[in-house]
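Please decode residue identities from the backbone states below.
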């Protein structure tokens, strides 16, 4: 049985994979078993922040695997504490809970907000408000938080206590607050899975003000937008606000599973012993990888991310077959005349791996993609969008 057949036989059928088997790679170039090369414009859905088998990242991972790979959370380890310290110092958040994925980071954020609200405002204060068109994960609770009905259909009943409003609808939120007690509001600054749709600055600052006035926890989901992808360390930083809780994962450890929930002033002490936990909660190897990733996301790197994003935007805006460009930094969405899925499928043949997000072509190259590689990819994407 070849791997396509074996995959069909043995892997649960949740993923519609492209017919590509990746065997190796370096930086922004991936290789399949026939030796064909692909430019990676998706980074495993925004995970491999510094590309494939990056030397600095590998050194950090290999060094830590030679020391200790897992201890459980019953003991102290240096990489765990140093990573938390780094995250807090760079964000102003106060404490961190580590997990293994974006969904878990979001679950933890909900637990923190609900516990805070119950203690402060009573047990009937538990409603979490999210935005229509959002995406927050696949667990039953983060699905309840996800404001897209089609994800809910097969799995009812979902966790109760979730409501959604349209992005921008501050009045709708205020009206809702008249009928339920709101514990938290959660947003993505750019709705990634929702089609790379940025949320407006006015709405985000209005939301921040309203949450402060009403002692409602403001959670920003930085799973997709975080860790340098937006051109800032976290996308909320470009909106000039400070959330109460930030959740992140994906690119944090550059290719190893790690989620982090950053707890700000208000909720920093909400959890006590036994209130939450995880056997893995990342691992020293994931923490070492994340320290290596975060230590490279400095001002020059972020300026280069913004410059590359500017170059892409300029190239794609008004190009034949492209009707719109959205996003922030190196999270970019292209509205296209031809169906996005068709374009992304064709680009595989042209040696470029891209993503879709709803009806858009979604691009998330490595933060350090070399300019000449980016230029080649952009040329091929433009040609595919134009249908030439
Ligand atoms: N939140 C956002 C904004 C995401 O984009 C995703 C995944 O795409 C998640 C949460 C879920 O992350 P994970 O798949 O790591 O659980």
């Amino acid at each position: 049985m070849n791997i396509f057949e074996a995959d069909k036989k043995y892997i649960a059928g949740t993923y519609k994979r492209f017919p590509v088997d990746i065997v190796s790679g370096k930086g922004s170039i991936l290789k399949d078993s026939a030796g064909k090369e692909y430019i990676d414009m998706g980074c495993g859905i925004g995970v491999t922040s510094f590309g494939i088998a990056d030397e600095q990242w590998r050194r950090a991972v290999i060094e830590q695997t030679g020391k200790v790979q897992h201890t459980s959370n019953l003991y102290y380890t240096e990489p765990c504490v140093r990573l938390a310290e780094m995250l807090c110092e760079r964000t102003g958040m106060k404490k961190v809970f580590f997990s293994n994925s974006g969904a878990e980071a979001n679950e933890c954020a909900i637990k923190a907000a609900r516990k805070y609200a119950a203690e402060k405002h009573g047990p009937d204060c538990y409603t979490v408000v999210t935005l229509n068109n959002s995406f927050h994960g696949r667990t039953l609770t983060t699905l309840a938080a996800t404001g897209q009905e089609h994800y809910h259909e097969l799995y009812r009943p979902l966790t109760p206590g979730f409501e959604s409003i349209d992005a921008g609808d501050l009045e709708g939120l205020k009206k809702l607050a008249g009928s339920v007690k709101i514990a938290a509001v959660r947003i993505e600054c750019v709705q990634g899975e929702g089609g790379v749709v940025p949320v407006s600055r006015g709405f985000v600052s209005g939301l921040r003000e309203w949450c402060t006035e009403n002692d409602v926890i403001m959670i920003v989901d930085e799973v997709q937008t975080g860790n340098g992808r937006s051109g800032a360390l976290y996308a909320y930083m470009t909106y000039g606000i400070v959330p109460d809780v930030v959740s992140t994962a994906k690119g944090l450890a550059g290719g190893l599973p790690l989620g982090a929930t950053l707890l700000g002033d208000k909720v920093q002490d909400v959890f006590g012993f036994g209130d939450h936990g995880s056997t893995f909660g990342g691992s020293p190897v994931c923490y070492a990888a994340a320290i290596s990733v975060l230590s490279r996301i400095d001002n020059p790197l972020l300026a280069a991310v913004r410059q590359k994003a500017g170059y892409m935007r300029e190239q794609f805006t008004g190009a034949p077959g492209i009707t719109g460009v959205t996003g922030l930094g190196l999270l970019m969405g292209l509205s296209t005349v031809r169906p996005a899925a068709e374009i992304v499928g064709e680009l595989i043949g042209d040696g470029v791996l891209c993503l879709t997000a709803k009806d858009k072509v979604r691009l998330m190259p490595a933060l350090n993609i070399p300019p000449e590689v980016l230029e080649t990819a952009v040329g091929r994407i433009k040609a595919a969008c134009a249908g030439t």
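Observation: The longest strand covers residues 322-328.
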